[in-house]
Amino acid sequence: MAEDRFAVGTALPAASFPITRKDLVRYAGASGDFNDIHWNGRFAVDVGLPDVIAHGMYTMAVAGRVLTEWVGDPGAVEEYFVRFSKPVVVPDDGVGALLEVTGKVVKELDERRVQVDLTVASAGQKVLGKASAVVRRS
Questions:
Q1: Which of 61, 64, 76, 92 could staple 71 via S-S, CB 3.0–4.6 A?
Q2: Nearest-CA neighbor of 61 among 137, 135, 133, 136?
Q3: What's the pLDDT tens digit per position in 53-67?
Q4: Positive or negative, the Cα torsion across 52, 55, 56, 62?
Q5: 11-19+55-136 CATH
Q6: What's the confidence (pLDDT) of residue 1?
Q7: For 24-47, what is each residue's pLDDT tens digit?
Q8: CA distance 122 to 110
């Protein structure tokens, strides 16, 4: 009998994603969000941030890759929620930031769908709170 990868308690493969300033510039161009806090270190510090921060929606999308890669069909992710709890600080040091994502199937909603919760951290701090998705079994 094959293992049910959608069984409650199943861990999704953990993943780490580097985020650089170049990624933020690309995202700004694609999204149209050119807010100075996402590219100008001097401005970010002047408004009270430690440095440039990643766009919240970019962080959410990068973390969501763990879901779509695990399920194999992006259309199978029916719902995806997060709470932005801390910014991802992206220093201009040639390295940037690292987003670390783990996930687990936490609940069977019905015979076709499960709830998956994600833990998303950067620099040892949780950056997305209550990250949760409803995923359709493929």
A1: 76
A2: 133
A3: 999 999 999 999 999
A4: negative
A5: 3.10.129.10
A6: 43
A7: 999 999 999 999 999 999 999 999
A8: 33
Angstrom distance (rounded) from CA 55 to CA 84: 10
CA distances, 96 to each of 38, 109, 118 (Å): 13, 38, 22
How would you label 34-56 residue by residue, b for 16+ Cβ within 10 Å and e otherwise? eeebbbebeebeeeeeebbbbbb
Question: Rounded distance, CA 69 to CA 14, Å?
Answer: 11
Q: Which two tokens stand for residue 13?
A: 């493969």
Q: Is the pTM above the cut of 0.85?
A: yes
CA distance 66 to 15: 7
**Cβ atoms of residues 121 and 62 within 8 Å:** no
Which pLDDT score, from 0 to 100, does residue 68 have? 96
Residue 2 half-sphere exposure, CB side, CA atoms within 13 Å?
3
Distance CA 65, CA 89 (A): 20
Q: Domains of the chain: which residue ranges?
A: 11-19+55-136
